[in-house]
Amino acid sequence: MWDYFWGIRCVWLRYFDVFKKSFFYYLVTTFLEPILYLLSFGLGVGSLIGHLKYQGTDISYRSFIFSGIIGQTLLFQGFFEASYGGFIRMYYQKIFQAMAITPITLSEVLWGELLWDTTRATVAAEVVALIGVISGDFPPQCLLLIIPVCFVSALLFSGLGLTVAAYSKTIEQISYPQYLLIFPMFLFCGVFYPIENLPVILQWLAWSLPLTSVISILRSLTLGFSIDPKAIVILIFWLVIWVWIARRAMTQRLVK
Amino acid sequence: MDPQVPLQISHLTKRYRTPSGGFLEAVSDVSFNVYAGECFGLLGPNGAGKSTTINCISGFYPTTSGNVSILGHDVYAHPKQARQLLGVCSQEDTLDTDFKVKDQLIRHATYFRVPVSEGRKRADDLLKRFDLNGKADQLVESLSGGMRRRLQVARALVSQPKILVLDEPTTGLDPEARRILWEILMICRGQGLAILLSTHYMEEAERLCDRVAVLCRGKILDIDAPKNLIKKYMSQEMQEEEVRPGVLWKRPSNLEDVYLKLTGSKLGVNGA
């Protein structure tokens, strides 16, 4: 048992050391994108819209979009690191194969990969939240409150990404789920507007995708609304599904 | 399972499901031991099951049936204990391109719980022995193919294994690099390291291996010392072959003749 955690820690540390070495690269690729979204939508669209009604309360569009961008950050950082990054590590660098014939097992390698992707996405989401706190949109305690949901969501999206990496024959094939699933989630799951504005059928579709639940919970925690229990159930459901499939699919791909 | 024997393989069988839905038996009932200080050769054409056998030895692939144990540790029941004693240089290049040459040796050693200070000492020593110390602070990308191969063998040795498994380690090496590797393997064997070597080069096998197994379509055709195999299978001591139109060469029978005879191919186009 202890050995198992030791193995996962070894793998996680490998990723962390790469991160430290290429800190500038990660700084740009991890934090710049959400900050650009914040500026563009928070300031640009925010000044256009001013306020909107969310769950019967009047809130500023800037606060609304900031909490949505936390969810978008979790989605993009978790998915892209695990899908493209995971594919490169598995297919080109063969890092999984090299580590999994040492006292570290493949099972530990895959947990290490998922937990690193999760760590990276969670940190990025916290940076967005911190900007929200500094701008006065969120209360400071929300930085702590959102950690569990950020972690769980990041793990979910990393699982989704690693699943995609496991099933993709070439790196180009990762574009299919990227355009067919990730971008639709980004556009329809409530990052930019309350999904109640959508036709009912699209609302149902949005709720069936995990990002809607993630954003619903994040908005509740950052803006002080009550949490929708259904969102927690959907989130846990997708978490278990994607992490399980990711580990199984990647193991099947590597081990004959 | 004898805790004294570095590598024991008994009745190893590995069946895969092929993409078309059928089954392929890549390894059938393979048994052999590799003893301390011994170099054991695994010979066979492409697709004979050499790499599959090696993937089963590391426990990376589960076996269909049979056992593999390393100094008494079953690689499936106790993978961590077994692999602690195992160094593998796989056929594919699996070097970690995110780290510099020396750093990745130290890092690899940490996977075996070797402290960084000790890993650094071992890395320095290995880089010197493999004639790579000029490259210690460079990324893998700047290394030539032969250097990468040597680094991968060095990496397999950084944990000071009791059994070293090398899957076609000299493919792509120039004669000098090959000599360096052969010399290092000889020194390691002198210190009691057991080596399992898969190779296509019969001259290399004949030179390095105390015993060889000839593998074909997943089955072992014979296991013996190269010298004995030659005696057993080649009736004439000398071989005569036409190497260029009209040019005949006479040479002693060698392991390659045995290999080609056993695996069903004939040397030379005219089958003489």
Walk me through the structure:
The complex is a heterodimer of chains A (256) and B (272). Chain A is built from eleven helices and two strands. Chain A has helices at 2-21, 23-49, 61-92, 95-99, 106-134, 142-145, 147-167, 175-188, 200-208, 210-223, 229-254; strands at residues 51-54, 57-60. The mean pLDDT of chain A is 93. Chain B contains nine helices and twelve strands. Chain B has a single domain (7-225), classed as 3-Layer(aba) Sandwich (Rossmann fold), CATH 3.40.50.300. Mean pLDDT of chain B is 90; it is low at 266-272. Chain B starts with 6 loop residues before the first strand and ends in a 10-residue tail after the last helix. The chains are: A mainly alpha (256), B alpha/beta (272). The interface between A and B is medium-sized, with 22 and 30 residues.
Topology of this structure?
The complex is a heterodimer of chains A (256) and B (272).
Chain A: H1 2-21, H2 23-49, E1 51-54, E2 57-60, H3 61-92, H4 95-99, H5 106-134, H6 142-145, H7 147-167, H8 175-188, H9 200-208, H10 210-223, H11 229-254
Antiparallel strand pairs in A: 1-2
Helix pairs in contact in A: 1-2, 1-5, 2-3, 2-5, 3-5, 3-7, 3-10, 5-7, 5-11, 7-11, 10-11
Chain B: E1 7-17, E2 23-34, E3 39-43, H1 50-57, E4 65-70, E5 73-74, H2 79-84, E6 86-89, H3 101-110, H4 116-129, H5 145-157, E7 163-167, H6 175-190, E8 194-199, H7 202-208, E9 211-216, E10 219-224, H8 226-233, E11 238-244, E12 247-252, H9 255-262
Helix pairs in contact in B: 3-4, 8-9
